[in-house]
Every structure is written in C-alpha cells, then in structure tokens.
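Objective 1.3, modelling of assemblies. Example input:
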Amino acid sequence: MNPTIHTRRQFLRTSILGGALSWTVPAFLERTFLAMDAQAADSLIQTATGKDGPILVILQLAGGNDGLNTLVPHGDDAYYRARPSLAIPKSKTHRLTDYLGLNPNLSGLKSLYDEGHLSVIQGVGYPNPNRSHFRSTEIWQTAVDANKSDSHGWLGRYFDSCCQGEDPAVGVSIGNQAPQAFAAKEPRGISFARPEQFRFDLKQSAIPDAADEFFRSVNDVESMDGGSIGMLPGSNSGGGETLDFLQRTALDAVMSSDKVLDITKRSRSSVTYPNSKLANSLNLVARLIGGGMPTRVYYVAQGGYDTHSNQAGSHEQLMRELDSSVSAFVADLKAQGNFDRVMLMTFSEFGRRVAENGSGGTDHGAAAPLFVAGGAVKPGIFGTAPSLTKLNNGDLIHGVDFRSVYATVLSKWLKAPVEPILHRNFPILPFV
Amino acid sequence: MAAHLLNRAGFGGSSVEITKLHALGHVGAVNHLLSAGEDLDLYPVPPLSTPAENAMARRESKKLDQKEQMQRKKMFKEAEREQIDALRFWWLQRMRSTPNPVREKAVLFWHGHWATSQMKVKAPYLIWQQNETLRAHALGNFTPFAKEITRDAAMIRYLDLNTSTARSPNENFARELMELFTLGEGNYTEMDIREAARAFAGYRTNSSTGKFQLAGKLADNGNKKFFTRSGPLNGDDVVDELTSQPRCAEFLAGKIWNFYAGGTPSPALLGALAGYYRMEKLHTGSLLKKIFLSREFYSDQVVRRQIKSPVQWLVQTCKILDIPLPSRNVSDNVLRQLGQVLFAPPNVKGWDGGRAWISSATLLLRYNTAGQIVKARRSGDHSPVTPPDIDRIIPRDATPEEACVAIESTIFQSRMPGSLRQKAKDFLVANGSGAAARRELLHLVMSTPEYQLT
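Predicted structure (tokens):
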C-alpha cells in the first residue's frame, strides 16, 4: 500500500485511525471500515491504483463505425465489388498485410502499429446481432447475450466486484451522461463534461466564502458534527441507509470535484492537441492521469459514425479526428512516462453493411474490428478476417465475441476475475 | 402528514396548498385528492404529425429525386425532434399545474411500468397516444388496461410485435409481458412464452390511423396451452389468464408500494396489499386509497425516506417555491443531465429509480440547478428561469429562528436535522438577513443530501 496519505478521504478511511475517529463520524463510515476490514481478506479486492496501477481508457465510436473502411480488406475483390463508390483503393491504404490495410487517414495508428503499440482485433461482434443503435449499444455496454438484459454495465460490475471501498473516481467518464457500462449495484464513478462545471457553483453568490463554508459543512462529512444524522426523524429505526448513501455520495462529489479541479488547474499538456471534441476529452483524460487521479477506467466517446449517406467525406473526417486525437494522447502519455500503464480500447455498437447503399452510404451492420493501443499491448492482428461473401443477411459474421476482448482486458490487464463480471468465461486473446 | 401525502400521491405543494389539504382531515384529504377532476381543454396537445400525414408525406417523397428525398428526410427528423420535445414539456407542465396531480403521478408510474421509448418508436403521435392510454387507465382496472396496451401502436412497435407472425412468432413482447408487466421473473416457463407469443401473432397497427388492427392472415388460430387454459387462445385470453393469477396482484402491488412508499414491503404488508388489490379486481385507484389511508404509509421507514426522481425533484421544487417550470430548453436539459428523459426510459425495465438517480455528478447538478433556479435574474416573461419570491418564503423581518421554521415548512415539510438548523441560524446571524443572504441560504439548504429526500 502507498505509505503516503494523499487525501482526507484516505486519511478517514485508514482503518486504524478510523477506529479512533468513529465517534465523530456518522454510521456509514464505520460500516465502511468494517466492510473494508472484512473485504481485505477477499482476493477480489484490489488495492488502490495510486500512481502505478494499470489504466483502461474506453473510446466509444458512437453510431456504428464502418469497419470495412477502417480496416480495409484490400486483398479481397469482393470488397471492391460490394462498394463501387466507397471502396478505398489498395494503393491508398496503409498496408498491414497482403490482405489488410488501414484507412488512409489513420497514419498515426499505422506508426503506432509499426512501433509495436497497436493491436487490431478483427471480426468482433456477438451472436444474433441486433441492428438497433440503442439496443446494440446496450448489449456492448452491459455485455450480456443479445436476448437478455441487465441494468448494470460490465464496468459497473467490475467496480462492484473489485473496487469496493475505493475512491469514487475509480471510473471517470467525460461527458454529461454516465455510460451504461458504469451502471452498478453500488453506483460509482464520476462523470463530467467540463471540469469547471463539476463543482458546487457559487459564481452567482453574493457571499461566496460564507456559502462555501456552509456548503462544505453540510456535505463534507469530515467536518460534520457527530450527531447530525441521528437528528433526522426516524433514523434510529434502522432505515437511515438512504440518507447515509446520499451523504456518502455528497462527500464523494465534494472530494472528487476538489481533486479534479485541483489537477486540471495545475496540469498542462506538453503536447498540442488538435481542435476537436474527442481531442479535448482525451486531453482531459491525459491531464487527470498525469495529475495522479486514482482512476482505473476512463470513458470517452466520439459521435457521428452513423453514415447512411454521403459517407465518403464524413467518414474520412471522423477517421482523421480519431487518428489525430489518439496520436496526441499517446504522445502526451509518452511524455508523461505513463504510456506503459495505459491501455486504450475502441468499440462501436456495430459495423456496417458490406454492400454500400443507394445514397453513397452504408446501413447498420454487424461485426467490425476494434483497436487496442498502449505501451504494454502485444502488437498484431488478432481474430480471423470475416468472409465478405459468406454473410448473414448481408452482414459480416463475427469470429470474436466482444466479451472475449473484455475478458482479456479484465483478466490480463486489470487483473480482475472474469466470471463474476461477464457471468461466464470467454476465450482469452493474446493481445496483452 | 398532509405534506407527505401530497408529496407522494402527487408532486408536493406550497405551504398554502398543504394547509388547505390538512384542513380536510386525513380521509377527507385522500378522497379529495383521488376525486380531483381536470378540465379537458386545460392542456391542448402540441401539434403532432398524424400517422395519415406521415404516410402521405412518405408516399410523396418517393416521387422526388434522391437529393430532395434526403432533404425531406432531414426535415422529417427535425420535425420529429421538435414534436417530441414539445410533447415532453406538455406533460411536464401538466404535472406542474394540474388540479389532478394524483392521476399524473400515476401516469408517471405507468410510463415506467409499460416503459416504451421514443428512441425506437420514433413517431411522437404514437407516444402521445400511449400517454393518453396511460392516463385513461392510470387509476382504473388493470386487466382492461393491459389489454389496451397490447393493442397500443407504440408498444407494438417497441417490443417488435409488428414483426410477429404465426409462422415465426416474435417472443419479445410475450416475454416482457410476463417478466416485467404482470408476473415477474421465475413465474412462467419458456413454453408459456412461446404459447403467448403465438397468441399475439398478427397484432398490427394501421399505418394511417395508428390504431390497432389484427392481421388475420398472420394470426395463429391453432390450439394453445397457457397455464390453466387451452384452446385457440388470443391475446386477450392470455391477459385474462395472467391477471387472474394471485402472483400478478402481488407483483403489481409490490411495484406500486415501492413507487409511492419506497422500499420493499414486508411479506405481511405485501400479502395484505395484494389481497386487497385482488378483491378490488386490480382497481389501482382503490389500492392507492388503501395505501394513502394506511398507517404503514406514514411510518418512520417511509416518511422522508425516498430519493426524489429527477422529475419529482424539478416539479416539486417549482411547486414548493411557487414558480413556473424553467423554460422548455432548461427543463429538458436538466432532466436529461439528471437522467430522466420522459418518453425515453433507458430500457423496457423503465428507470431503476431510488439510489440509481444519484451519482456525484447528478448530485452536484441538482445542487447547481437549485442555485440556477433560486438565484435566477428576472428578465421578463421570456426569462428561462423565474426566481422565487424570497420574501414569501423567508419573510424579510424574520428572526433566524423564524427563518428556520419557514424553511422547514416550505422546503422540507419537516424538522431540519439539528446541526443543519443551527448552521442555518448561524449563517443568518453572520451574514444578516438581507434578500441576498436569505436567497443564498435557500440555495444552500437545497444543496444538501436531505433535500434530495421526500
């Protein structure tokens, strides 16, 4: 364990001190200490990441990325036949093998591949593919069979089984909405679009100092008086858990917003990022990583992949934005010396039809490739290339279940047990 | 007690409303709430494209060249978006100001029960049509309600009933009907699902009216065996069978108790509620009356123990502060960020509710939204947010003690926790009781874990 106590929260949650302090803190903290003691013996529980644990960054390509124009099967005539206007000429792709090449706009990813820091997993999907954005995204986020549903996400279940008693910022999602992947029995993880909004806003206040003091005194449990909770009507009858929960969340919010604000104020990137939403998100993630957030999973998204019509220009643009943002992020992490402990994984709810449609675009499809990048990945191309002629309703048939990718990331990278999180085991891929 | 009743049965109210309700006595108040009417013309529906108009537009669009078709499609999507936004605000305003809040609250419950999302259904008209069906049956008998829902165009689309045929029955609706709508998981077999799916094969809607029609050729008239019944059963037979099972009353009564009182009822309480519900032929209004008159509903485990849903938080805040809802854009944005977009529940299970509403992000958003509302600058009728009249909430010349009493009766409808109360007093002593300080305090007491409870 880290000998230095970084935060007031850690200070409060250190068991020895916790026992001594328990008469001033409300009941839920005592329970946390007890729970932590009980859980310490449990091998599922991992110690806080501190400054050296592995970090996972999920990058969602929302809308259904056209896998065939991302990882181009330039060695297959069927590709050129199916896409008379959208196919990317062999000469333009960044050649990976005799059969595959990367989209011309992915030059940064090509360099990453060449230097051995990118793995490509092809033909990723799931049985009985669903072509609704909404439903298929849900399937990826909750990692259940296509005919089942679960309100908890796969990362939420990871938090539930491996990160109890940890910092609330164990998961950070950049955006206003927490992704469904984070949904958990014990909701954890924080989300915000802009750090300056993730705080108690006193801009309109006439007396900000007094207001801030009051605010902290009623939301930050550390400074609360011992008796406060007992005063609420009926709380002695054993039903006070809801208020406990709210108070703990309030504490989490105050503490993590202080931390986020503090880190983003003092951290600067040594790298210039392009000007795009994705780049801004990744820039923020890099600053949080560099600043020492105890976060294990970051979540960012890039939208706009639903290219039903006039795909050529818009998909190029998306690929360029993806490539330049990820490249800047990688350069930033390398400059920080953190590249080896970060793994970035992309996913999209589905790929697109093999054949282009009549509007110069492609419709919702099924299997597609995804990328995993990081200092510690085993480079290469994994999975088998899906056949372009043996199709299921015009769609590629997956060779790799996406949960195999999750299982690999969970067990090999995050060192978490797979079964409690994905409900069963899946074949592990050799990319870590 | 009157405040608790109004908070849970409806969306809360100002201290004047609470006092009025209190004066009616317990039974009188419950009767008054459950028998409230509402003028039909009070909430005119925003303009929505009808199925007939849409069908015609589609036909016409086919005659155009590809580029024009694309433009039409884009326009169509924009119109759809505008219409669903308008519809959302229409319902929210109805919750805010209806003289019959008990019914609107029940509509909200049923919207989460028969969860249907516009993200898949698309057509706002069909979403509105379903919302009116929920309203018509919200406080009535469950069996005809369920039958009506099996014929509802939005539901038929949402759970893929429109692709179900005798030859290949789609089981999506049949499964959810049992798992989420009537019995709960584990109370039926896969065989039951298959048989029920056959009974619903051929359920379609007329594309130019949005009304139900049975596609006779696609229906399955063969014999089916479903629980105690057998024969050429149809969808109504399936519903009759399901709702006649004791498990159905239990499942629904538990869900209703959870929505209104919070938590899981004890086996004894659940048994009593379910028994009563069955005796009343699953009449929801009667069950609610029983609940609102029960001692359990006012117990310490129930009162001020429920986390407000985002909709409850917003509507109740506006009601207690006696202000209109923030503008459509602001309200929409707030509910989106807080995780409850009406007509777009996350999945067919509806919203999880309870603790799932609260994360560090949404808690801070609630706090900051409270500030936005309390400290809004008035700028005419079109200002996005109307600030409350602070002098009416905490009188100008109130002593710190009186100010606390005022906050307790308006904001919490109960005593504040001792330390919060003391801090509020100290705050006024230290910062004076000018309007700015009182407004600040109002924002601060709403920016607490306690305010998230009702």
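The first strand of chain A starts at residue 55 and ends at 61.
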